[in-house]
């Protein structure tokens, strides 16, 4: 009635709310509604003469559980006065839950990094999420309604026919690795998981396909395999030399100075290879630590040049062009020596003729070191690639795993510095690094160090 008191209810209403008739009739309608504001709004609208159609509300059953309903209602007026309402309540709880589940699923599908595609059994695309747009380059509007062959390379059409046949038999296909083609024509390697879609009767009506881009993973696997092959090759060569020289002395039963020097050199080479691999592992695991202390870059460069020159065949000339006074900074001496030695050794290895020059310069906020050679130079297209892991110039003839410059740049970056190359084919190369005297906010910014640097500057 006008006061909201229930006058009558049918059996379906009683079953919905869980009350007996004598418990239900005579109660205020707000007693069986979960939201007071909702029932107040319904009664106010009816009092104004409005008719409600599928008004959403929540009923609280006698046992305390909630049901989602929609209400259609209007009021009967007699001689201008509110008489009573007619209220039809429909339980939509199951539909509401299904809609919420679909909404959550749609949100998951749209937010996932994997391409999710729906298609009919004859291969027509019915759904296409955002990740599919990113992976294949087609928008949903462009893809939906098109055959799935839109993204299948011509030579793999037979593979598609086999997949569809297996789906019709109700099979699920997991982690099938294959190749697809993007809108721009570029090939992309993907891992597919495909499942049949069934209707309410269990009949297979289509398929759902999840595609994951594995291009980078495949490339990483290829790099890993190439690295292992390179490592095995580069370790086998010095091991063969060590074994050969050792067997030579064993056969002659006499000490041989040249053989001993060769064994030491080859053992040092193996040590550097192992050190590079361990350094790469530390970089990959983000476990690189710097032990900063006051370091004289001039003295360090002279020491590295002398050692590299002695180890080089025929004692190649490595000239250090530096100021007479020291260049002091807060650096990790061992890591910095590793970088400088690598640059000098590379110059000796790839530039067979002419002197190697190491130049040092003090600038107001940083120290600069450059290693120049008179070798064949590096093509512009190769100059950035050589700093990548396993990166080597295409024309390089000397052995190596391509880790030295990758590690060197990482070590210079850790110091807050920069490492780069300037080169012109046929005119040699210059590898330069710039090192700030200390990182801002470092403990190395102590007054004694600053004063020493400023004084020498």
Describe this structure in words.
This protein is α+β, with helices and mostly antiparallel strands and 457 residues long. It is built from 13 helices and 15 strands. It has helices at residues 11-17, 21-24, 36-47, 93-111, 130-136, 140-143, 157-168, 215-252, 257-284, 297-311, 333-350, 404-414, 447-456, and strands at 52-60, 66-78, 81-91, 115-120, 125-128, 173-181, 187-198, 204-213, 293-296, 318-321, 328-331, 356-362, 366-372, 418-423, 429-436. The strands form four sheets. A five-stranded antiparallel beta sheet has the order 5-4-8-7-6, sandwiched between helices. Strands 10-12-13-15-14 form a five-stranded mixed beta sheet. A hairpin with a 5-residue loop joins strand 14 (418-423) and strand 15 (429-436). It is elongated and about 125 Å long. The model is unreliable at 443-457 (pLDDT under 50).
């Amino acid at each position: 009635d006008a006061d909201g008191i229930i006058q009558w209810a049918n059996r379906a209403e009683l079953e919905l709310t869980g009350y007996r008739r004598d418990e239900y009739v005579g109660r205020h309608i707000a007693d069986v509604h979960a939201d007071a504001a909702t029932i107040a709004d319904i009664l106010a609208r009816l009092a104004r003469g409005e008719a409600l159609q599928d008004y959403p509300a929540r009923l609280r059953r006698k046992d305390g559980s909630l049901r989602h309903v929609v209400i259609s209602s209007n009021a009967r007026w007699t001689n201008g006065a509110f008489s009573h309402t007619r209220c039809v309540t429909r339980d939509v709880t199951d539909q509401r839950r299904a809609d919420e589940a679909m909404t959550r699923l749609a949100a998951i599908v749209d937010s996932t990094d994997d391409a999710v595609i729906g298609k009919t059994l004859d291969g027509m695309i019915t759904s296409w999420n955002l990740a599919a747009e990113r992976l294949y380059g087609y928008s949903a509007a462009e893809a939906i309604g098109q055959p799935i062959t839109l993204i299948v390379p011509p030579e793999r059409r037979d593979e598609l026919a086999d997949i569809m046949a297996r789906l019709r038999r109700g099979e699920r296909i997991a982690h099938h690795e294959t190749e697809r083609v993007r809108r721009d024509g570029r090939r992309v390697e993907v891992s597919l998981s495909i499942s049949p879609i069934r209707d309410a009767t269990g009949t297979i009506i289509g398929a759902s396909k999840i595609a994951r881009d594995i291009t980078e993973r495949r490339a990483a696997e290829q790099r890993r395999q190439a690295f292992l092959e390179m490592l095995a090759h580069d370790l086998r060569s010095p091991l063969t030399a060590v074994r050969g020289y050792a067997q030579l002395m064993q056969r002659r039963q006499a000490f041989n100075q040249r053989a001993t020097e060769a064994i030491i050199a080859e053992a040092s080479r193996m040590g550097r290879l192992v050190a590079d691999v361990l350094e790469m592992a530390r970089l990959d695991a983000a476990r690189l630590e710097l032990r900063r202390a006051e370091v004289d870059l001039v003295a360090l460069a002279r020491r590295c040049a002398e050692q590299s020159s002695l180890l080089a065949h025929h004692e190649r000339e490595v000239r250090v062009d530096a100021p007479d006074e020291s260049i002091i900074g807060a650096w990790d001496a061992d890591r910095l020596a590793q970088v400088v030695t690598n640059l000098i050794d590379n110059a000796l290895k790839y530039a067979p003729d002419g002197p190697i020059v190491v130049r040092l310069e003090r600038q107001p906020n940083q120290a600069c070191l450059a290693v120049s050679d008179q070798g064949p130079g590096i093509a512009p297209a190769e100059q950035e690639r050589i700093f990548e892991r396993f990166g080597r110039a295409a024309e390089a003839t000397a052995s190596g795993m391509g880790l030295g410059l990758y590690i060197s740049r990482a070590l210079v970056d850790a110091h807050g510095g920069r490492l780069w190359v300037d080169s012109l084919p046929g005119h040699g190369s210059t590898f330069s690094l710039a090192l700030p005297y200390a990182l801002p906010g470092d403990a190395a910014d102590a007054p004694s160090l600053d004063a020493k640097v400023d004084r020498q500057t």
